[in-house]
């Protein structure tokens, strides 16, 4: 084991990385709070500033993927879709698995990615607070209560000044065997073809989003993601420097090709998921997706951004720690160690937010209800 590989396994290193992410995130959240005074003066300038502040935070996760763990993503697509992915507005349909975010970070970490997020995340430090300033649409996952909120939130994005990706998880919840069984019972009752690798997509959120985003985004990009060796990446694994290899199939559908009628658009989505199921079956059998292969290069900006924050935050931390131990005061040393312990607990809790193995209970009963 080399020295760098050894460092990647040390908890103190993980703690320092977590310290940089958490403290920089709190600083960014505070700056975002201060920018609220810009909203009534110049809304578009407020949006541009907050996009870049959020990007400075999220790109630290990209740094961990690309530079720390060396994780690679192979994109399977045609050339037109690949160029579209690199710089336009679009809506992205993806699986809702525990590892989705790691694959999507590679390509859709633009300064203004949006998502329909469950309302509970609004109260999560760093993640929810940053999303609030980015005008992320938070919902309770009860369509009767969410419909007006979603429509109003999406319409507000019509004049967004940045390239925007809107991420859609049409299955609504993470895949489990129990949820899949219940979902397929619903599919059978509705006369829909059964899916082997997916849950039945929820059409109301999709059709509403597509209708509201017409004129704002140019296309829907369907993403099917797999990690080689059936690995399930986690933030903890990334921190330990584990390298993952992702295969991502991306297909582009111009928005004008999607029916405007709600029922026809819902049928279009069901057909899309049948195609996604066939793609997954092909991958399981052949270990490859159709289309040209392309590996996005690592981005120097993500590394430089992290090094900036590490320099700004770790230098005073080391100076303070050295001063505490040099003082010889037992009280100061114990207080410092207590602070380190609290920070360790906080980092573990933050990691725990991403380590979701069973998923939520949402879907176990909801699939039994008709949309």
UniProtKB/TrEMBL annotation:
Coiled coil: none annotated. InterPro entries: Acyltransf_C, Plipid/glycerol_acylTrfase. SMART domains: PlsC. CDD domains: LPLAT_LCLAT1-like. Belongs to the 1-acyl-sn-glycerol-3-phosphate acyltransferase family. The keyword Chaperone does not apply. It comes from Buteo japonicus. This is 1-acylglycerol-3-phosphate O-acyltransferase 3. Pfam families: Acyltransf_C, Acyltransferase. One of its GO terms (biological process) is phospholipid biosynthetic process. Keywords: Acyltransferase, Lipid biosynthesis, Lipid metabolism, Membrane, Phospholipid biosynthesis, Phospholipid metabolism, Transferase, Transmembrane, Transmembrane helix. One of its GO terms (cellular component) is endoplasmic reticulum. The chain crosses the membrane at residues 12-41, 83-109, 303-325, 331-351. One of its GO terms (molecular function) is 1-acylglycerol-3-phosphate O-acyltransferase activity.
């Amino acid at each position: 084991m080399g020295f760098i590989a050894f460092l990647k396994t040390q908890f103190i290193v993980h703690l320092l990385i977590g310290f940089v992410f958490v403290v920089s995130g709190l600083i960014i959240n505070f700056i975002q709070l201060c920018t609220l005074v810009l909203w009534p003066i110049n809304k578009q300038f407020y949006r541009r500033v907050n996009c870049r502040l959020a990007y400075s935070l999220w790109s630290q996760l990209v740094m961990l993927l690309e530079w720390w763990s060396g994780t690679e993503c192979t994109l399977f697509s045609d050339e037109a879709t690949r160029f579209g992915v690199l710089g336009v507005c679009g809506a992205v349909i993806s699986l809702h698995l525990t590892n989705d975010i790691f694959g999507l970070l590679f390509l859709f970490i633009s300064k203004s990615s949006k998502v329909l997020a469950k309302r509970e995340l609004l109260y999560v430090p760093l993640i929810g607070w940053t999303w609030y300033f980015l005008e992320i649409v938070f919902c309770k996952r009860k369509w009767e209560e969410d419909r007006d909120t979603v429509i109003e939130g999406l319409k507000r994005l019509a004049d967004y000044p940045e390239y925007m990706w809107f991420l859609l998880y049409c299955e609504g919840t993470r895949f489990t065997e129990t949820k899949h069984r219940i979902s397929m019972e619903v599919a059978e009752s509705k006369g829909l073809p059964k899916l082997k690798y997916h849950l039945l997509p929820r059409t109301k959120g999709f059709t509403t989003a597509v209708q509201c985003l017409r004129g704002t985004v140019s296309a829907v990009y369907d993403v099917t993601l797999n990690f080689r060796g059936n690995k399930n990446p986690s933030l903890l694994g990334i921190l330990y420097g584990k390298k993952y290899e992702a295969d991502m199939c991306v297909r582009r559908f111009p928005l004008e090709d999607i029916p405007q009628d709600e029922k026809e658009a819902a049928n279009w989505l069901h057909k899309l998921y049948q195609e996604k199921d066939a793609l997954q079956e092909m991958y399981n059998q052949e270990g490859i997706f159709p289309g040209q292969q392309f590996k996005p290069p690592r981005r120097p900006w993500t590394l430089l951004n992290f090094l900036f924050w590490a320099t700004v935050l770790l230098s005073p931390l080391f100076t303070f720690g050295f001063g505490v131990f040099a003082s010889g005061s037992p009280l100061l040393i114990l207080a410092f160690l207590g602070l380190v312990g609290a920070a360790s607990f906080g980092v573990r809790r933050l990691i725990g937010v991403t380590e979701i193995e069973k998923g939520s209970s949402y879907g176990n009963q909801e699939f039994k209800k008709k949309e």
